[in-house]
Amino acid sequence: MKKFFASFLVLFSAITIFAQAPGSLGKNDPEAKKILDAVSSKFKTYKAVQASFSLKMENGAGKILSTKAGTLYMKGTKYRISISGQEIFSDGSNIWTYDKAANEVTINKLDPSSNSLTPQKLFTNFYDKDFLYKLNGLVKVGPKSMKEIELTPIDKSKNFFKVLLYIDNTAINTTKIFEKTGNKYTYAVSKMNTTIPVDEKTFVFDASKYPGVEVVDLR
């Protein structure tokens, strides 16, 4: 379980580690930038978001190693991720990582000045400084035609060499991460609710709801 959860974090970190203030790159595709800017602008209008997603991991031969489903809540800088016995809570200041099998939660301080991975960055401003990007055109994803945008990291030392985004209207529907090892991670949003009211308590780990939980406070 911990191995899979690490893979889940790889997915977010691969996309979000470069989330910086916008920059300029001469080789980028202006049509791709228009689409990505529209996605980012639209997402910033939502007060809160609830999303259902799936995460699939494949090896270089195309064999599926893991498939999991989860739920994501976001509000401002706060988020909560639940996936197959693992949960991450963040109130914008602290991060609680809970492992159900071990009944253990680890608490870390969030450093806002660092390139900390956050789900919000998956949908906003993740593309503009350290990626080259281009529009590949329309492709079929299930029954839908979506715009495929290819991102390539400028820093070739990273453990992945390509990210594909599949955009439905002004929302990222599917993201694929291609690692140099041959592994591929596919993150797909099956449902997104952008009008749901989300209580602030959603983003804070409540130990009273997890009897006997072991707390590892690293703050």
Keywords summarizing the entry:
219 residues, alpha+beta, outer membrane lipoprotein receptor (LolB), chain A, 12-stranded mixed beta sheet, 45% strand
Report on the architecture of this protein.
The chain has helices spanning 2-16, 30-43, 119-123, and strands at 49-58, 64-75, 78-83, 86-90, 94-99, 104-109, 131-141, 144-153, 160-168, 171-179, 184-193, 214-217. The chain is built from three helices and twelve strands, in the order ααββββββαββββββ. It has a twelve-stranded mixed sheet with strand order 7-8-9-10-11-1-2-3-4-5-6-12. It has one domain: Lipoprotein localisation LolA/LolB/LppX (outer membrane lipoprotein receptor (LolB), chain A). Helix content is 16%, strand content 45%. By secondary structure, it is α+β, with helices and mostly antiparallel strands. A hairpin with a 4-residue loop joins β5 and β6.
- By oligomeric state, this entry counts as single chain
Specify the CATH architecture: Clam
Q: Any idea of the CATH topology?
A: outer membrane lipoprotein receptor (LolB), chain A
Q: What is the average per-residue confidence, as pLDDT, rounded to a whole number?
A: 81
